[in-house]
């Protein structure tokens, strides 16, 4: 175990991870009503509506996320599971970006595989997919997840009380990814802060890339510097520095905020249902189903978007080429055509695939890592914090946020 | 190259479509595994509950899996 306590500067963690703070304002961090009843009504009216998700949702503002703002394009939003699934499954009709991607252009998410399509996307994704399989999740656990979780729990355990959302959930994914990159713990928060400005990420990552080019090790940057990719003409080349930086920026952006918030959502759902928490504590095989059910019921990112590549009649609506199709996967995950009592959090449901990690070729690369982080993290809390419960004298956690949802503070007592 | 699955295999895998995302393994770990090209192959013998195999087939993001009608259960 690392000598930690505290592993990270707690005040800085709080500032960087406050969902309602300025950091998240652009995607609706301050939104606090429950959007699900409104989305259910919309889903009932029609599978696909004209308009963005925030414009269709009362009380929401002009926030940005994937496929937004794009003010010159018409916007549509799919609400049923069938419609959302159809968008994901046809990645030619519904493309991940409006323009072709030049991976050798300046580094950033726009140059990363998130924005690519077809064979190009497949070539780039294949370079890293082997390190993101269910089996490879064990490598992630050994390399950084277990150590991070153990250190955080050791820090919390003697205190008898804690705030789990920021002091536990938020820290795990950043330290997991930076650990697998080979970025030292002291720099982990700099990385989080730098994410608002990709150039700052490059400043941190560039020396590591140079060092691994000299001497590769057992880490993700070494995988990237050794990777070879064929271009359109079949010419094989090693990844350039900008290509590697784009990968790093994408992985940091996609992997740290999401898992943090999803773990907080899951813990909140369990802590607010002490009998369910007790059942999971008693029978640890219920932890995975609990995590999956929280993903279905309250996904941290309830919407992703695609660009429509030709005119199409889609689930009863004419959608023109050039439009943006938003996938309200949060609404799809509660489609009564697919789930009984869809608004209930019920960990005993029959197993059924959900859309919380997306679908089609861009399905979340990190989903098995995210699941491993949540199983390891929540499992360690259950193992080490007896009688874990919400602090009855503190403000109870609530779900907030619009395009990035999560829990407010999760104050707990134990022991 | 697509490997012809034995006739009694519960699922057919289209190796050209598979991107190695591993959803099948998450839902039915006793039935699917990745080979060293990170492409899904069937375990010998596959043994998950029928519902889990069906979930795996549906969860494949690429539609690379096809359920055969006769799925052996445990
Ligand atoms: C619970 C946590 C997570 C959730 C809910 C989540 C959700 C998603 C979703 C919905 C997508 C699809 C985006 C789209 O349709 O355009 C996606 C893509 C992606 N995710 Fe995650 N994610 C999580 C954790 C992670 C982690 C831990 C990593 C990395 C370590 C990661 C890396 C990625 C990458 C690289 C992509 C882009 C894949 C591609 O374009 O082929 N995610 N994620
Ligand atoms: S879920 Fe589909 S794409 Fe992913 S490994 Fe299995 S067969 Fe391949």
TrEMBL record, chain A:
GO MF entries:
heme binding; iron ion binding; monooxygenase activity; oxidoreductase activity, acting on paired donors, with incorporation or reduction of molecular oxygen
Provide this UniProt record's keywords sorted from A to Z. Answer: Heme, Iron, Metal-binding, Monooxygenase, Oxidoreductase
Cell membrane: present as a keyword of the record? Answer: no
Q: Which InterPro entries match?
A: Cyt_P450, Cyt_P450_B, Cyt_P450_CS, Cyt_P450_sf
Which Pfam families does the record associate with it? p450
Its family? Belongs to the cytochrome P450 family.
Which protein are we looking at? Answer: Cytochrome P450
Which organism is the protein's source?
Trujillonella endophytica
Q: What is the lineage of its organism?
A: Bacteria, Bacillati, Actinomycetota, Actinomycetes, Geodermatophilales
From TrEMBL, chain B:
Which cofactors does this gene product need? [3Fe-4S] cluster
Query: Pfam families, alphabetically?
Result: Fer4_15
All residue ranges annotated as the 4Fe-4S ferredoxin-type domain in the record: 9-38
Print the keywords alphabetically: 3Fe-4S, Electron transport, Iron, Iron-sulfur, Metal-binding, Transport
Which GO MF terms does the UniProt record name?
3 iron, 4 sulfur cluster binding; electron transfer activity; iron ion binding
Stored SUPFAM superfamilies: 4Fe-4S ferredoxins
| Top-level taxonomic group | Bacteria
InterPro entries under this entry?
3Fe4S_ferredoxin, 4Fe4S_Fe-S-bd, Fe-S_cluster_ET
Function in brief: Ferredoxins are iron-sulfur proteins that transfer electrons in a wide variety of metabolic reactions.
Q: What is this protein called?
A: Ferredoxin
User: What species is this protein from?
Assistant: Trujillonella endophytica
Q: What is the lineage of its organism?
A: Bacteria, Bacillati, Actinomycetota, Actinomycetes, Geodermatophilales
